[in-house]
Amino acid sequence: MEKFTVHTGRGAPLRASNVDTDQIIPAVYLKRVSRTGFEDGLFSAWRASDPDFVLNKEEYAGADVLIAGPDFGTGSSREHAVWALQDYGFKAVLSPRFADIFRGNSLKGGLLTVVLPQEVIERLWEMVEADPATEVTVDLVEREVRAPGLAHPFELDDYTRWRLMEGLDDIALTLRETDDISAFEERRAPWLPVTQ
Amino acid sequence: MARTMAEKVWEEHVVRRAEGEPDLLYIDLHLVHEVTSPQAFEGLRLAGRSVRRPDLTVATEDHNVPTENVFGPIADKVSRTQIETLRKNASEFGVRLFPMGDIDQGIVHVVGPQMGLTQPGMTIVCGDSHTSTHGAFGALAFGIGTSQVEHVLATQTLPMAPFKTMAVTVEGRLRPGVTAKDIILAVIAEIGTGGGQGYVIEYRGEAIRSLSMEARMTVCNMSIEAGARAGMIAPDETTFDYIKGRPHAPQGADWDAAVAHWEGLRSDEDAEFDHEVVLRAEDISPFVTWGTNPGQGVPLDAAVPSPSDFDDPSARASAEKALAYMDLEPGTPMRDIAVDTVFLGSCTNGRIEDLRAAAEIIRGRKVADGVRMMVVPGSMRVKEQANAEGLGEVFTAAGAEWREAGCSMCLGMNPDQLKPGERSASTSNRNFEGRQGKGGRTHLVSPLVAAATAVRGTLSSPADL
């Protein structure tokens, strides 16, 4: 996983709430067995049907900080939603509230999801709509989002922050605890089912 | 200290706890399917890792499979590759697999309980958000992403962030014709699609206790639609009766020891929940959705709402967008909405009781002209049982299509899809834009409403027949 410390880029305003993962990437793209190349599926229905959709606007080409409404990433657990955002070029998503599974997936994969109050999201929308060249900085070190005339802290637990900053693989970390896992297995109840 | 059921199950599974780190939880059962696993197995292969506990892992083919001609190769090449990839991975890593055509194949959340693999007090995960279904047994069950699938395959554990607890109590008795699906749609409309965010919900109260296991699964299944991490119901005699005698249920002395343990799992009487919601069962009536998220629902007796009914600007904007997509006018009685398709199936409502309830309404009647009804059993065992009871004949005699098991039109990954502009009454769990096919419009309903709608051609309840 790529390390994340401080990222500065342009923002894409997605003025919508309840953007579910079926919108982020429709199920038809989930048939693939690869781990990359999902950018064509990102918001594919909206990109195909709505010329005014933010990613269809030339002025937001290359924007890599998605600024979204509340309840972003609801619905299906498909991690493909995170991969599609990353493959398309997004480094961070800002929203007043994320669905749990999507948030977990994003932070596993190094896509920084940042919770900001609705009014801060509104200000950022206004800023990047007034001037699409506005630079937005997502600073994981200081846990702060900055834009011209705006600096707002965000919360992220120390452990997740450390993991993202170091670009650490969760599995490797857990495998260090194999002795604890084996000891736990000794204590498991004998009636628990096995599949084979 | 008094604890809730969720807290007890969590505590029993902590492998490692360290200050400033998430708890490392042991996973008792890992369910796998073709869509969210290929990249996880590939990750293991690249890192030279193995599956730690193949004996706590089981795989089935469900999301992608056709529901016709299941004994031949899949026509769609990409789908076929994904199925073949799962078969190759299962064989290479020693994971038991129920392939298409196998009598034990079916939707992952139908297969686990029917085999007796789902038991109270377990931790259960799957790369699928509807894993919350298994909470109906008093298990702590949650959907995970592919990175976590790989993590569980490699370590049989997951680091998990702490959760909050919510009690949803449904007091009193349900009125006739009102089902578990109506309860959960009413709950989601009440708390919203983000209302459960960060919570494990425990469903309680007389109306919940009186539900069968299958109906309890319907309730817990859609916890994720309220944004919750998981949903649970305390195990009781109904639970034990359901599990007893199933292929993987404990036997003999193990059974007695298991039941004794399970009985201690329920929340302590003085346990405190972080949030409580109370509904009266008598107030719930057949519920249907009008919009493009599962929280946008109303009683069937009501009309399509107007965006101006919503005070919150974001809810108002969302309603406007939904009505445009659904092509609905505010004020239209829900009963006046005509559908092209009725879908009966899915991990929400594809079990034998759902098919029985719908068949009871359909028996001796015909699917309305111009309406297509598709009945997709949740598993091949469900299909076998339904055929043994003559339900398959009831559906086909009425003019419905009686298919093989799979996720089917719930998410339209196989050929079972709506065409652009088509409208369905669907017993599935999501009415998102394009969920059942690009441009398709979905109304979520109970099996009873689905059956009555198939007969009348407009959203209806059995009382309308």
What features would you describe in this structure?
The complex is a heterodimer of chains A (196) and B (465). By secondary structure, chain A is of the alpha/beta class. Chain A is built from eight helices and seven strands, in the order βααβαβαβαβββααα. Chain A has one domain: Aconitase, domain 4, CATH 3.20.19.10. The model of chain A has no long low-confidence stretch (mean pLDDT 96). Chain B is 32% helix and 17% strand. In chain B, the strands form five sheets. In chain B, strands 5-4-3-6-7 form a five-stranded parallel sheet, sandwiched between helices. Chain B has a five-stranded parallel sheet with strand order 17-16-15-18-19, with helices on one face. A four-stranded parallel sheet of chain B has the order 11-10-9-12. In chain B, α2 (38-47) packs across α5 (146-155), α6 runs parallel beside α8 and α13 (352-362) packs parallel to α16. Chain B is an alpha/beta fold and 465 residues long. Chain B folds into three domains: 5-160, Aconitase, domain 3; 164-283, Aconitase, Domain 2, CATH 3.40.1060; 288-464, Aconitase, domain 3, CATH 3.30.499. In chain B, β3 (29-33), α2 (38-47) and β4 form a beta-alpha-beta unit. At the A-B interface, α4, α7 and α8 of A face α2, α3, α5, α10 and α11 of B.
